[in-house]
Amino acid sequence: MIHQPKNLFRTLAAALSLCCISGGWAQELEFRKLGLDSKVDKTIATLTAEEKKETGVVLKEKTYIEYLMNSKDEAERYYGAYRRIHLSGNTAVERFNKLVLPVTDPGSLLMVKARGISRNGVVKEVGPEAVKEIEEEGRRYKILAVEGLEVGGEVELMYLVKGSMSLFGAEIVQEDIPLRESEFHLIAPKHLIFEGKVYNGKYTKQDSSTVGEKRMLTFHSRKVPALLEEKYAAENANRTRIEYKLAYNELNGSKRILSWNDAGSRIYSFLHLGLDASAKDLTKFVAKEKIKGLPEEQAIRAVENYVKTNINLRKDAEDGNAKDVLKRKFGTQTGLIRLYVGLFEIMNIPFEIVIGCSRLEQKFDRDFDTWNFLDKYLFYFPNAQKYMDPENAFLRYGMYDFTLEGTDAMFISTATLGSMRTGLANISQIPAAPVEQNYDNMEADITFTAQADQANLKYVRKMGGYQAAHFRPYYFLGNAEQRTRMVTGLLKQSLKEDVVATNVNASNFNINSAEVNQDFILTADVAMKSILERVNNKVLVKVGELIGLQTEMYNERPRQHPIDIGNVHSYTRVIRINLPEGYRLAGQESLRRKVSFDNGSMGFVSDYKLDGRVLTITVEEFYKKIQYPISAYAEFQKVINAAADFNKVTLVLEKEGALSKK
Amino acid sequence: MINPMSRVLQGLLLVCLICPSAFGQIKADLNQLQQKYPNDELVMLREGEKITITTAASGLKIECEHHEEYLFMNEQASRYASHGIRYSQFFQDILDVEAVTYLPEGSRYRKVPVKEIKTEKPSSRGIFFDDVMVRKFNFEGVKKGAIGTVRYREIIKDPHTLSGFMFGRYIPVLNGDFSVTFPSAVKLSYKTYGNMDGVTFQTTQSRGQTTYSWKVKDVAAHPYESDAPNLRYFAPQVFLFIEEYTLNGITKPVLSDEKKLFNYYVSLIRDVDHTADSQLGAMVDSLTRGKTEIEKIKSIYYWVQDHIRYIAFEDGLGGFVPRNANSVYQKRYGDCKDMASLLNSMLKRAGIPSHTVWIGTREIPFKYRENPSLGVDNHMIAAVKRDGQWIFLDATADKIDFGLPTTHIQGKQALVMLSEKDFTIAEVPEVEHTRNFRRDSVEVWIKDSGVEGKGRSTYEGLWKMDLKYKLAGLSDAQKEDFYQSMFSRGTNKCKAEGVTGSDLKARDQPLRFSYGFQVPDYVRTIGSEQYVNPHLSRPLQNSRIDDSRKLPYERDFRFSDDFTTIVHLPAGYRLTHLPENKSYSHEKFGFKLTYVHEGNRVVLKNQIFLKSLLLAKEDFGAWNEMITRLNEAYNENLSIQKKK
Q1: Average pLDDT over residues B317-322
Q2: Do A481 and A618 sit in the same domain of this protein?
Q3: What SS3 string covers B408-475?
Q4: B524–A652 C-beta distance less than 8 A
Q5: CA-to-CA distance for A285 and A280, rounded, in angstroms?
């Protein structure tokens, strides 16, 4: 089980929900009652043939999250975890010989024990005396080196921590090694009603019960297979996991708490904090930078360009308000968003705060209102119906993190109640970018040297949207030397290693100007030898390699995950070959290919036209949908492999007038 | 007569008129520097260290005043605003940290002191736990033209750790200054390394104190490239040695030469007992019973490789003193010196003489004589002597066979302990290219328009070790993918199948694989002729060195490759074209490609070798020419025709 800590709003949530609680329950924790630290089973498990194939197997896992009221009527949260793992290979030994625990307060590690159990049942134990502490980027961790581990033996790890207060979270059940049995218990005083939901949970059963004055949610998982890694898949989103949240506090009424609406109003206030105090500085700023008075979209761009260029993200700084971040030139994610909020408010630009999560990690479930889905931020501008991504310094207005494409998210708009302004939450979908936005096109005009031993290309590359975002911002930020290296690297990777490029020119690379919405254009004169092979009096032109080396997808095992393309995109290549004098062309029929499926939502199409001495080849490859079900895998493979097949296409130039035999 | 006082007053007046702020000389000509250093976003206006050594009743006091000034050259300034001072809590104290940002406003600077300096305990790469701390802060409000300054005092608690200074960095340094002031009771010497031409040196005496000072100006940024030797190979450096000091009538030696360094190391490990306890002893006895001496050594070495994991605790003296072997055995983990300690104890128990060895890895350029200080080495291993040769046992590399040095100590000097009083400096050889070989032999048959084949691959020496590391930690599924790409022949349509390999865990024997493969659409038919490209493997095809590369190119090991391809001509066909043999020869590298037509087969043999760990800039042209020639050869085809 992997605990997944995230999210700014834990303390916020706690503050909101746990006031007005009474009752003194100084009871013993259920995890402690298990007494796992005082007894050890020295028998080594016998593995099945399937289990032996993996580097390790999680034999047993118990996780307890328990909420208690202390003597001061304050709610406390305890996290107890126990795991026993069989180590079949060195990789497992390496992985489990260190324990790392995120622990904030010195007094909060209440129990820790790590046991190495050798093949013949000898136990080596280490406890709190072996614990060291480190701190990274403002976060403290307790670390422990485990003794006595060996291949064929087992390891037991257990700890009990008094955690920082949090009323929602997730536990990941499935990982990349198999799991025999796992229990997750969420225990709280009767009046605190938690809800849990299992995702991808065909191995998990959910139960609830009462234990004295406590209410307990139990999730029992058995024989969970190892999570398989596959290309074009969102494995993490497909793994078995449990999301939970506090839904009701019966001592506070019957209204559902920590709802989407609560989040909307809370987060709105949180991100507007310090706005009044910052107003003067922000007003001065927009005047000085001449942003004031610009038309709306230009103003948004100007703000974004300034912040993304001049202000840095620092995870371990203080949050601060807009004024602080502007002055210091750095801030946390919260600080930066407050700055954007402040600037848009000052200029009366209507916006909505959008909060969602990466579809590669979690699918946002609008039917389960846990704040654990509120992870990544965007700004939405309803007038233009466009988005801005405050977290990605390489993207600009109109473009946003592709992992949010096609996902549900919370949109917080401003509601005015008299003189009060508050946030109104609404769950809606963030659209996928249209395929026209993301393209990577190429045009090559090819001539040959007299002896036909070298191909000379007049090369033009045009990229837009996401495809351009992989290259353009880095080109923009690089110095002259770095730019040359980047271009050389790009040409080698897209063509062949032996390219020699001259007259290289790049245009539209200033991402802080209107250029960012135009084609990023790279032109060069490229000389290549390696696409030509010689045999006798014939020259083989490996024209298929001009689309770049493609990888073939094989079918080793049945597909486990549905398909996720990443982002929609297309490639259009136009190759014009000027046939050299004295040569005859053969083999062009193999240029005509078409593989497409799902009504043309994905495909590879190539064709040619011969006009006198000019052969024009067009190759189009497109992926217009982000996700496909497992059932579509065979077809999907065909399209991917069609590009790899095209790499094989070879044209033959035969010297005219020569005999065809040696 | 000029009143001397008035001159002083005049001087003061002048200074006040010039300086825009209370701090005086903070200024920079941004435009001029941008022109001079167009490719740099950050420049050091000043890097200064001033060491003062004094003797007090309590002991030697070594203090270093640090002074750094950075100029932020463009709008991306805030990316560089974060700063940290790393130090070892056990060996150093950092005091009085003062950081200020100077923000340009017109022709003046506005001074913004840094208010928040945090102390954190970070993790260090590859080390589980140590005593390194960091003082962290952010320069405030930085923008183009801003200057960040930081000053602090460093107390060096142990005179053995006194190091020196490097004149050069990955960013330009406009002014570098380093000095050391010491009293007569302290005997101090220094050594220099590298080209000190641009560094000016001066000695001054004043009131019984001697000061050595070095200054440098306008040092260009050192290029940063991958697979290049460490900065220490290139930047000029000075190393300081407190040879001895006299306090209260007693003279204490510190460091000055290899002997003194050895004595100091011995004093650190003196109390480490190499006697195996009953548990460890019993294990060693059962491991070595009835074996010859060489078998005993191998069994012990391989046991430590297989059973002790690398977890490094380097806090305080834990970075220098190995832990007791019995403890390492119980815990089943340790760092390099713990493993060396365990090896020595186990070998001792087995009656085999072995030695403690200190050594520097290849990222450290110095020979012991050049820099006999703690900066000369960073690793500890064990060694045995057989047939007059030293065999180094580095158990931190767990995939290497006995008898081979690990890649990162090849060519380095080893400080071998012979006894508490005696040592020798041995040299670790670079493994010859013939020992690190890769042989691949493939036979193909033409089937329809494709080819079908089977092959055998053999890996030995450091090539084998390299492959074992790549395969370690891969799940079965990942291994399949790895083999697919490793045994893919011809084109990306190749499907490798039936891969079987010898036991990855087996030692002292080559790693062997056999495999089959199919490559559809590999043969081209034009008219009555068929064309087959026999270069199903194309080693070094993409290994051109970039023309803009500035620094030498470092390799992990020398190697020799041997690729043989046998193409069986189909029955009823004759060979109509056989390409010409090709080769290239250089003292450090070369290849030889031959084609032989025997009966109904064509045998292609491609032998490539690299005899050096380092390609200097002068070699790049020749290397790239070799790669070009190889690629030209790879483009050639066989042609066959049906017999009438």
Answers
A1: 89
A2: yes
A3: HHCCCEEEEECCCCCEEEEECCCCCCCCCEEEEEEEEEEECCEEEEEEEEEECHHHHHHHHHHHCCCC
A4: yes
A5: 9
- Beta strands B423-427 and B413-417 are antiparallel
Average of pLDDT values for A273-299? 96
Residue A28 pLDDT level (bands cut at 50, 70, 90): confident
Interface touch A150/B81, C-beta < 8 Å: no
Q: With respect to residue A330, please indicate whether it lies within any of the assigned structural domains.
A: yes
Residue B110 carries which side chain, given as an amino acid letter?
Answer: R
CATH of domain B437-642: 2.60.120.1130
Selecting from A310, A498, A554 the residue whose C-beta is nearest the C-beta of B484 gives A554
Q: How many CA atoms lie within 13 A of B39 on its CB side?
A: 13
Q: What is the pLDDT of residue A25?
A: 42
| Residue B225 sits at the chain A interface (C-beta within 8 Å) | no
Residue A417's CB: how many other CB atoms inside 10 A? 7
Percent of chain B past pLDDT 90, that is, above it, reads 84
The pLDDT of residue A451: 82
Which CATH number does the domain B261-427 belong to among 3.10.180.10, 2.60.40.1180, 3.90.550.10, 3.10.620.30? 3.10.620.30
Q: Does B420 touch chain A (CB under 8 A)?
A: no
CA distances from A342 to A274, A303, A374, B179, B553 (A): 9, 11, 21, 51, 51
Task: Answer with the one of A406, A430, A454 that is the final residue of a domain.
Answer: A430
Give how far the C-alpha of residue B549 lies from the chain's centroid of Cα atoms, to the nearest Å.
Answer: 19
User: Per the structure block, which two tokens stand in for A592?
Assistant: 């005509």
**Inter-chain CB proximity B38 and A136 less than 8 Å:** no
A58-108 pLDDT, tens digit each: 999 999 999 998 888 888 999 999 999 999 999 999 999 999 987 877 778
Q: Which of B588, B592, B596, B511 is nearest to B553 (CA)?
A: B588
Condensed to tens digits (0 to 9), the pLDDT of residues A300-318 reads 999 999 999 999 999 888 8
Q: How far is CA B23 from CA A458, B7, B44, in A?
A: 58, 22, 18
Structure tokens at A122: 């000898």
By C-alpha distance, the chain A residue nearest B72 is A310
| Cβ–Cβ < 8 Å for A12, A270 | yes
- Strands B559-568 and B437-447 come out as parallel
- Tell me if chain A has a CB within 8 Å of the CB of B576: yes
Residue A661 reports pLDDT greater than 50: no
CA distance B19 to B581: 74
Q: Which of A155, A535, A545, A549 is the best substitution to test chain B (most B C-beta atoms within 10 A)?
A: A535
The whole-angstrom separation of Cα A656 and Cα A586 is: 12
- What distance in Å separates residue B39's CA from the closest CA in chain A? 5
- Give per-residue pLDDT as tens, A442-463: 999 999 998 888 999 999 999 9
